[in-house]
Design goal:
The chain is globular and about 55 Å long. The protein is mainly alpha-helical. Strands 1-3-2 form a three-stranded antiparallel β-sheet. The chain is built from seven helices and three strands.
């Protein structure tokens, strides 16, 4: 068995800072969305992905890839979003087993209502602490880490120019 590739001091400090930042940022975003919108970040991200999609619709399999979720977990989330009227599902004519998730007008309105508080929290938790140069570095670092995932994440989400829609 090969010897473990232990982290050196520099890597250990970077790793611990990454973990701390990730937890703090995720916690602040999760708390804001629960408090202001009554939904977890995962549900908000689903609404954003659907809002960004052509005609506000995505196949469930595409939505699972875009949100890095399992199909069963995504199905549960979409069920909850359907119950509150923010998403609906339709079958796919060409594929009996396929389904499409579609954002409703109520879902779009919820996204519009929630986005200002969300983006302010993102700004406070991340961007207010960084220079413009550090923002570019953060994108480059995060893109490198996502690419290292073996292609399980759609790079178009960070490579494309923003359309002015709410950040996920």
């Amino acid at each position: 068995m090969a010897e473990p590739r232990w982290l050196d001091d520099q890597e250990q400090r970077a790793w611990r800072a990454f973990i701390a930042a990730q937890r703090v940022v995720n916690s602040r975003i999760e708390q804001q969305l629960q408090r202001d919108a009554g939904m977890p970040h995962t549900y908000f991200e689903i609404l954003v992905r659907l809002s960004d999609a052509k005609d506000g619709r995505l196949r469930m399999s595409e939505l699972a890839v875009a949100t890095l979720g399992s199909r069963s977990r995504l199905s549960h989330a979409v069920n909850r979003l359907e119950k509150v009227g923010w998403v609906r599902r339709e079958g796919v004519e060409s594929d009996r087993r396929g389904q499409v998730a579609i954002i409703t007008e109520e879902g779009r309105q919820k996204l519009r209502d929630t986005a200002p508080g969300h983006v302010e929290t993102v700004r406070q938790a991340v961007f207010d602490a960084l220079t413009r140069e550090q923002v570019d570095q953060l994108r480059e670092i995060c893109a490198a880490l996502a690419r290292q995932s073996g292609g399980s994440y759609d790079s178009a989400l960070w490579e494309a120019k923003p359309s002015g829609t709410p950040a996920g």
